Amino acid sequence: MQKELKKLPTHIAFIIDGNGRWAKSRGLIRSLGHKAGLSRLEKNIKECFYGYGIPIVSVYAFSTENWNRPNDEVNYLMDLFRKYLGKGFLKKYPETRFNLMGDMSGLPEDIAKKAQNLMDLTKDRTKFILNLGINYSGQDELVIAVNKIIEEKIEHVTRQVISDHLFTRGQPPVDFMIRTSGEQRLSNFMLWQVAYAEFYFPKVHWPAFNSKQLYKALLEYQSRDRRFGAIKEEKK
Ligand code: IPE
Ligand code: IPE
Ligand code: MG
């Protein structure tokens, strides 16, 4: 089935939305939606890397604005991240470099440590990259980059200089951005990196975004005509 796909994104990004509504529609508490969402996430990431061979996957798992949710839900999510980044991660994602996107100083200390440890241990892996956004804000990412540039006393700032100071430094921009649950907004995710991305907004909630849905999304990507501002040559 996958062989039909000729044009795959190099960098795919997911805004994994709708966990709460998925749970509610089943009479479950929101946190169980996050649990189901995490297990779906693991499957979809693996499928992108090891099934389709997509080299870079970015995921929006927790925004700086998500701290405004009830404590119980925030604590449950932090526990999920704790487990996810714990033992087993390295084996679960062979050949994958882990990159935490977000302000680590605002995370519970043990989670920041686990994330840093994974980044250190996987820094020489080159085949795949997983960018995981926890305590992430696209606007803050740019502010952090600008402050670093000032600290480094760089006088002439170019697009390249800005790109080189983002959490995704050294990586190509996002080609394909998927947000589940029908919402059609970025909610502050990867504002710089999506400049020429293709967008896809399936109605299904994240825990229901299965392998068939992923295939459908990638099939849709095939049909997009990416022009990057240029005029496409007519086929003779
Ligand atoms: C996305 O699902 C996961 C996180 C934001 C952590 P939501 O929790 O936003 O689910 P909905 O959008 O309320 O249904
Ligand atoms: C965006 O979803 C953040 C994540 C998926 C982690 P939200 O559910 O927080 O965004 P809004 O509030 O609908 O914009
Ligand atoms: Mg949501």
SSE layout:
Elements: E1 11-15, H1 19-24, H2 30-52, E2 56-63, H3 71-84, H4 89-92, E3 96-101, H5 109-122, E4 128-136, H6 138-151, H7 159-163, E5 176-179, E6 198-200, H8 211-223
Parallel strand pairs: 1-2, 1-5, 2-4, 3-4, 5-6
Bound molecules: 3-methylbut-3-enyl trihydrogen diphosphate (2 copies) and magnesium ion.
One 3-methylbut-3-enyl trihydrogen diphosphate is lined by residues 15-17, 60-63, 66, 183, 185, 187.
**Strand residue percentage:** 5-15%
Ligand set: 3-methylbut-3-enyl trihydrogen diphosphate, magnesium ion
* Rg value: 18 Å
Strand order of the largest sheet: 3-4-2-1-5-6
DSSP E strands, number = 6
Distance between the termini: 30 Å
**Could you report the average pLDDT, rounded to the nearest whole number?**
96
Q: What letter string, H or E per element, gives the SSE order?
A: EHHEHHEHEHHEEH
Low-confidence stretches: none
Can you give the helix content as a percent range? Answer: 25-40%
Quickly give the structural class.
alpha/beta
* Largest sheet composition: 6 strands, parallel
Shape: globular
Helix run count: 8
